[in-house]
């Protein structure tokens, strides 16, 4: 019997049940599928990537002092172990009292919500658990639709199967918004109470637990009465759920809000430094600004907050060179030359985040490059030392007839290398560069971190097409107190990730620029430059070596170093503009900053001479002798003896050569060192022979002016 025949023999009532049965079976099958989808489909709603919350990055010093926070959302993630039980219970009591029992969905709450929705004929009440709220906030929109609610349930079930209750609660408390730009329990605790979550009282925890429902409406700052009422509701719920006793509830409900608004600060003292940190993180460690805003890193930096604050205040309010085009800008750096660590950076007089950070702006360096472009390289040849004589006469150089002028338009004919550097003689610098060779000198500029594509003698005077940044010059000057070894500057000591694992750490890079002897010679000369030369403006009573520079009345520099730090101070306009002053201004301000730092740090009074190097003798200033005189007296056996005398300056290193005037060419009759007397033989009683004295610098061999001419006369 086939199937058709069998169907024909079935009772008639069975035929009537055929379609309803199929419909019922389909409904049951659909319900089973829907149940399976709801139960296991959450994996398609939940994004593991989105479970990683955006977290602020902190910029802090080694001792944990937070300098600034970098974030899109003000959130600091903490572990559930750092959240007191009474704070956890406050949120559970008001948001989801059966949180510890249900599996992500509270069926009783859902039935109650459905009933009220049906009565109202619209969606009026939710029954979301903490897990559902977390799912909605992280993966879904706020639309009140059945589809969204279904996805919410799916995600909640998934979270409950794959995460513990503590993990879910930790995510929830770190995720929710508490108003006034704060996300997460720790940021809220710091914002409203100026304390960490671990220190929150029961009342404080209850106040925070009441905020997420309507952060603006329950703001304790803007609506303290509503905030107190909401807090007390939470405390009541905590009593209802058994989290606190009645006595504690009453006591806490009678307490004040105890909120404390942090003093709003418009200070910008750290902005320049932090902007440099952000740039360094991107360029050196390939962490973008956007990643810093969400990545939750801890960046340990080398800033000294005391010095940074001092520098920021002085740069903002100190005396700047006058300018014809409005206020003049400035930049300041200070680096620990032992390590290359930048302890202070000021990129502008009132620097705001995103401004031009002038410590990285290129400017013509003027004369502050002379130690690296001319004098250091010259001494490295072995043919020049600090007392080698250089030309100091107006002259033209090369086929193009390059003719530099000294800044004061005064020329000495010839000067020592020491004097040329101390007094910043332009002609001598160009003359010396011409002799040692441009390509040779550029090699040392490269080592000093000051490369240039220029090939003219103007390199000697810092007349460059591109110029250098204050940071480059800081590194270069930092090499001199380190025996000629340059260290790359840096701000970031190390970077830690969310787990506090070190993912990046500074690795020092060094380059040898000059040998130790040349560096020490330059240090001694530049110390004299600060006390007696072009950098003598202002007052600083501790050890300091440095050099000034002025570029065509457009901007001015001071660059130098103490035994602890190397630093640069620049003043000028970002583009074009004429200043009405000299390098006196940055020199004075640098010394003022160092003086204030010294009051806190007690900086060194002298540089320590490296082992195995020679000290540089002080330059000799040749005297001008105008009081030479001669006398005759009778010695034994009736012999006549003459004596020449003159005043001496007290420097017993000066050599005095005595000449007798003769027809044709004068004759040297002797010399003495450090004395103002010389004996000569007389020719007769009426001897009218004339003599004069010439002072000689034994360091340079330079002759001074001859003294007045004298003859021998009888002593009475």
TrEMBL record:
One of its GO terms (biological process) is cell wall organization. The chain crosses the membrane at residues 21-46. It catalyses: Preferential cleavage: (Ac)2-L-Lys-D-Ala-|-D-Ala. Also transpeptidation of peptidyl-alanyl moieties that are N-acyl substituents of D-alanine; [GlcNAc-(1->4)-Mur2Ac(oyl-L-Ala-gamma-D-Glu-L-Lys-D-Ala-D-Ala)](n)-di-trans,octa-cis-undecaprenyl diphosphate + beta-D-GlcNAc-(1->4)-Mur2Ac(oyl-L-Ala-gamma-D-Glu-L-Lys-D-Ala-D-Ala)-di-trans,octa-cis-undecaprenyl diphosphate = [GlcNAc-(1->4)-Mur2Ac(oyl-L-Ala-gamma-D-Glu-L-Lys-D-Ala-D-Ala)](n+1)-di-trans,octa-cis-undecaprenyl diphosphate + di-trans,octa-cis-undecaprenyl diphosphate + H(+). Residues 330-565 form the Penicillin-binding protein transpeptidase domain. It holds the Pfam family Transpeptidase. The keyword Cell wall biogenesis/degradation applies. The keyword DNA-binding does not apply. SUPFAM superfamilies: beta-lactamase/transpeptidase-like, Lysozyme-like. PANTHER family: BINDING PROTEIN TRANSPEPTIDASE, PUTATIVE-RELATED (PTHR32282), PENICILLIN-BINDING PROTEIN 2A (PTHR32282:SF32). In the C-terminal section; belongs to the transpeptidase family. In the N-terminal section; belongs to the glycosyltransferase 51 family. This is Penicillin-binding protein 2A. The lineage of its organism: Bacteria, Bacillati, Bacillota, Bacilli, Bacillales.
